[in-house]
Amino acid sequence: MTLKLKITTSDPAASRVDALGVVCFQDELEQHSGLQTLDAAFEGALLSHLKAMEFTGKAGQLVELPSLGRLPASKVVVCGAGERGEGEKPRLAAAVASAVRGSFSAHPASVGVVVPESVSDFRAVAEGAVLGAYRFTKYLTGDRKPKRALERVDVLTTTKPTAAQNRELELGKAIAEAVCVTRDVVNEPPNVIYPESLAQRAREVAKKGNLKLKILDPKGLAAAGHNLHVAVGQGSVRGPYLAHLSYVPKKPGKRVVFVGKGVTFDTGGICIKPMQGMADMKTDMAGAGAVLGLMAAVAVLQPDVEVHGIIGAAENMPDGNAYRPADVLTSLSGKTVEIINTDAEGRLILADALTYATRLKPDAIVDAATLTGATLVSLGQPYSAFFSTDDVLAQAMERAARRAGESFWRMPLIEELASQLKSDVADLKHVGDRYGGAISAALFLREFVDQVPWIHCDIPGAVYGDRPAGVYPKGATGHAVLTFLELVEIFAEGAAVSGKTPPAPSGTGEGTTPRPARRVPRRTTGKAAKAPARRKR
Ligand code: BES
Ligand code: ZN
Ligand code: MN
Questions:
Q1: Percent of the chain scoring above 90 in pLDDT
Q2: Which of 113, 129, 161 is the C-terminal boundary of a domain?
Q3: How many Å lie between the centroid of ligand 2 and the Cα of residue 457?
Q4: Domain count within the chain
Q5: Could you list which residues have their CB under 5 Å from ion ligand 3?
Q6: Whole domain around residue 132: which residue ranges?
Q7: Which residues contact 88 (CB under 8 A, 6 or more apart)?
Q8: What percent of the chain is modeled with pLDDT above 70?
Q9: How does residue 525 score in pLDDT terms, banded at 50, 70 and 90?
Q10: Whose Cα sits closest to atom 7 in ligand 1?
């Protein structure tokens, strides 16, 4: 059931809702007419309580209080949105989300959110409301089942909304619902989400969004030569799948391909993981989940950019038929790969999916994967790493993450580490040293993107949280969807995607007509291996 959302100018103190949220920018308590109105209903006790609690409207501040019969709502939650200006949009969304989430203890069917004075970004408000209202409760029964579902959020403001503002509200709602597609699929347990059912979710997204869809089943993957992907999946009775969704705008624009790692459960395979933490590996399809959410969002936003979403799905299990360390496999690209550790399965699936992506001749490729524990070690749980072969593209990514309010940190592709991927029996080893493990994983992937400007996102931590933060709830967060959507919007604005020589014009610009590949020489692992050896210590 989807949340009902509307903008109204009704008096917050008289508003017939079960709980009331108030969002306030920093040091604006006096200007906030909604707060002043409510304070009158409390005979001055509201503002003096906020003062006593040292509430100033700083981002992340939250004060809850019972209304004690002074309002129709049983509870008031006041949230700070920080300063106005730079980065205001995600802070506003986060405060709205916290206000809605904070009202849950009142078991509300309806919540009113009083927005700050002269707020006009109703897309952000709607995103915050829907993202804050999200809960994953489908497997709870009896007492654990929420008594009432939140059905309605009223956005309370002082000026009558324009038609454009109502449209922004609808758009924000639809975008947030797309993020919730990602959350749902990541929250689902691995007995429910396995490669075939993940592909089925892709089918649902395609159907709802009127997107083109191609699915490769286990036979199709083998026939097409995705041998690395097939190898990862062959230890499971639930065979591997690839789903390719595409959105083609009416007006032709840039073409960008997103690729997601969809390991529905990662036991490590023959190199099996220890029991501690293995259950977390239900989130190992969060990259694919983000790509699905993005495609759902793109379908509603309808930008003038051609967007493809590819998910590579497999379950990594130990079995008599499982792939093993020392196997040598021929990738879709033709490069041969020596398997080192069957727990480094994600990069194998991605390698073939990236080759598939390059064959679409895109202007840029962006992949997302819960790829390495090394990224968790270097950046901590809330941050994702990203790598790029192109500085202009990397800057666009930085801007996109900032606009979305999501935490991404650029990491370097350190050439010296590439020699770790040299194999004696094959073109490449698929794992380097433990130190710098996120970087050598990225360098391995780089071998499969040809000359296409590329971003690799390693998102092991932020996709799942043990407590709510901003628009993120506990559990699956939907991380990366909003950043990728901003990136698509930046492409739609006509910004340069790459600092490299642009490709020859594609002429017709229809569909996925192949364009001539760019000729930009780039170092290969072989050459990097000849680089001077590192100083011994
Ligand atoms: N899915 C894991 C990475 C991971 C770890 C994601 C923790 C989220 C939280 C990945 O498949 C993996 O097992 N990576 C190994 C690679 C190693 C064997 C080279 C790792 O990081 O330990
Ligand atoms: Zn994995
Ligand atoms: Mn693994």
A1: 91
A2: 161
A3: 14
A4: 2
A5: 266, 343
A6: 4-161
A7: 81, 82, 121
A8: 93
A9: very low
A10: 373
